[in-house]
Amino acid sequence: MSNRPLSRKEREKLARQQEIVAAARELFLRQGYHETTLEEIAHHAEFGKGTIYNYFASKEDLFLAIFDQLIGEMEEIARRTLIEGEGPGRQRLTTYASTMIHYSCDNVKLIALVMHRIHQISREKVRPYLARFSSVMRNIWHAISIPVRMEQEQQGGCAYDPLKLAILFEGLVRTYNMSRFGPLQSMPEEEIEQAAKMITTIFFDGIGKPHKG
């Protein structure tokens, strides 16, 4: 893939596309997927309906663009907190867990919409997006394995593969989010931070040996 700078025309095109996706994302949440029309999305984005069709052939394509956006946002969280994060491994993992819980709180309705709608799209059409999701999940597991390895080294080594441990840690965070899917909308800040610390502590120390420090 070329890393050349985008031309002004390309930047303007990308900006319009992002504005359309943002408008669709807002209206899908406010009104529901079926209740939202392309005309309403165009009006909300302050474009003509014809402009929408320059970028998206259907409302379903817009939905898939939102799904792709969510995937990218999750990957960005992992990059920012785990790879570029500061502090020891345990601290980075706690920050990742906390940020992901925050993200789920902020986007719980959208995540629920995606989980519901994605199974109603033809397999052929959704396949490349699911393939991207799988690729991003592997990237996230790799990012998690970095602070896991840091913590292993600090503890004097560990016989377990850091990548396999990373998959388990990500599963803990995701399962916690899913178990709190409804209440996540109203979790106070203190509870989110406590949950993140609990997940990290149990992962490294077990349920009967609280981490000191």
Question: Can you characterise this structure?
Answer:
The protein is an all-alpha fold. The chain folds into two domains: 1-56, Arc Repressor Mutant, subunit A; 60-205, Tetracycline Repressor, domain 2. Helix content is 75%, strand content 0%. The chain has eight helices and no strands. Helix 1 packs across helix 4, helix 4 (59-83) packs antiparallel against helix 5 (89-117) and helix 4 packs parallel to helix 6 (123-154).
Q: Quick one: biggest sheet? A: none
Can you identify the CATH class of the largest domain? Answer: Mainly Alpha
CATH topology category name of the largest domain: Tetracycline Repressor, domain 2
Which spans of ≥5 residues are poorly predicted at pLDDT below 50? none
Estimated structural class: mainly alpha
Radius of gyration computed on alpha carbons: 20 Å
| Average predicted confidence as pLDDT | 91
**CATH H level of the largest domain: which superfamily?**
Tetracycline Repressor, domain 2
